[in-house]
Specification:
4 helices, mainly alpha, single chain
Length: 97
């Protein structure tokens, strides 16, 4: 997990055609990843890939806040918690509800 992601994802901080192109490519790549995760069964079939991406970004933002406040565990632990939280929140449940 790269702590600068929060900065890079904030469109209010940078403007311009090149920035927009990079942000669009990043969004497209992330959306493709979440579609693949859904298509392979790692995410529920009813999960919207765009929504999953937005949740992922929100988790990154929150993780960055912990790092800035120096209240986070080490980066590897934080990254593991982030992914675990994402997949348990939108992943295939172990048992039906």
């Amino acid at each position: 997990m790269n702590i600068s992601w929060g900065f890079a994802m904030d469109s209010a901080l940078a403007k311009g055609e090149e920035v927009e192109e990079i942000q669009c490519r990043m969004l497209d790549t992330c959306d493709r990843l979440f579609r693949r995760l859904r298509d392979t069964g790692a995410l529920r079939s009813d999960v919207d890939p765009v929504w999953a991406r937005r949740v992922y970004y929100a988790l990154i933002h929150e993780a960055c806040q912990d790092v800035v406040a120096e209240s986070a565990p080490d980066i590897d632990t934080l990254a593991t918690q982030l992914i675990d939280t994402l997949l348990r929140g939108v992943g295939t449940p172990a048992a039906p509800l």
